[in-house]
TrEMBL record:
Homodimer. FAD binds at T31, D50, Q58, Y63, A103, F137, D295, S336. InterPro entries: FAD/NAD-bd_sf (IPR036188), FAD/NAD-binding_dom (IPR023753), Fd--NADP_Rdtase_type_2 (IPR022890), Ferredoxin-NADP_redctase_2 (IPR050097). This is Ferredoxin--NADP reductase. The lineage of its organism: Bacteria, Bacillati, Actinomycetota, Actinomycetes, Pseudonocardiales. It holds the Pfam family Pyr_redox_2. Its cofactor is FAD. Belongs to the ferredoxin--NADP reductase type 2 family. The keyword Oxidoreductase applies. Keywords: FAD, Flavoprotein, NADP, Oxidoreductase.
Amino acid sequence: MRTAGRPEPSDTGSPSENISVDVVIVGAGPTGLYAAYYAGFRGLSVAIVDSLPESGGQITAMYPEKQIFDVAGFPAVLGRDLVSALVEQAKQADPIYLLGCKATTLDERDDKLVVGIEDGPDVHAGAMLITAGIGEFTPRPLPAGNEWLGNGLVHFVPQLDKHRGQDVVVVGGGDSAFDWVIALHPIAASVTLVHRRARFRAAQAIVRQASDLGVRMMTDAEVTALRGDGKLAEVEVTTKQGDREVLPAQTVVAALGFTADLGPIESWGFHVDHRQITVDTTMATTRDRIYAAGDVAGYPGKVKLISTGFGEAATAINNIAVLLNPDAHLFPGHSSNME
Ligand SMILES: Cc1cc2nc3c(=O)[nH]c(=O)nc-3n(C[C@H](O)[C@H](O)[C@H](O)COP(=O)(O)OP(=O)(O)OC[C@H]3O[C@@H](n4cnc5c(N)ncnc54)[C@H](O)[C@@H]3O)c2cc1C
């Protein structure tokens, strides 16, 4: 387990100790992050668990460098900037972040829900909000050299600046591969794209953009070895014809796509239909004290979008506030009156 704790130093004790909060949120994508803010707005303590080492869900994993045009109030916002703003906003709730932590089990003890984390602490909570999106992402592995993972081999690039001045090899032919190529090109010493087919899956416009930048693209070619003396230094690329070339590389980005799976969550005792958790108009699942919001929540007419998740998060947390304190009002009051 990699516990990031809070993005800033936590004073709540070691993450190896069990944690007790009013609400536990499973999933630190945009919906979970906004829900964390909202829990604070309702005076609830909150822990937020994600199996990825960074918050931001699909945005961070798949399109941090893309502009998003349909988030209310932002004519255009870079994925990465939206996530930063959500994290900043959530700070008001002082959430306990458990990043790099997969939620695996759910029990009930002493009138609390108990979420078990793989190799981590239990989280005890009065209520749970599941914002697990399309599930836990598992990156498709690079067949050659997977043992370099975390030591030069990465699946996504949360901080571009770490690769300034490096030789980078990006593997893949989809939109994400090209996004990384275009984002890294201005700061890296060199960027080479390696793709095992002759044609790319990515949109023509970004392929053209990369080509206009002069990025070297090796097609019908595969990375067949990663080498270095403790530190990644070079990759071997082999073409379909069997020609071999060695390229310098301190980073290899394997952008080969992800598989997503709800995994253990599906067996937590609520109704799941086509990988979506059935909810009612309060975002309650069919199991007491468990709510769902965002992509993972399903009901007739559901539209899976960031803005939908924000509204659902507010509905879920306001209903949780009343569940935990029946004297509380469902309507929270207007945040603009709260200064
Ligand atoms: C390429 C691309 C472009 C997109 N563009 C847009 C756009 O322009 N506008 C728009 O509105 N939407 C867009 N979307 C969709 C948008 O990203 C999703 O609707 C949004 O991310 C859903 O947010 P979420 O928080 O519900 O779930 P997610 O973002 O999927 O986050 C869920 C989180 O839960 C975590 N998780 C799952 N299971 C567990 C577990 N057992 N334990 C711990 N953690 C777990 C995952 O690791 C993940 O981080 C796009 C999606 C893609 C892939």
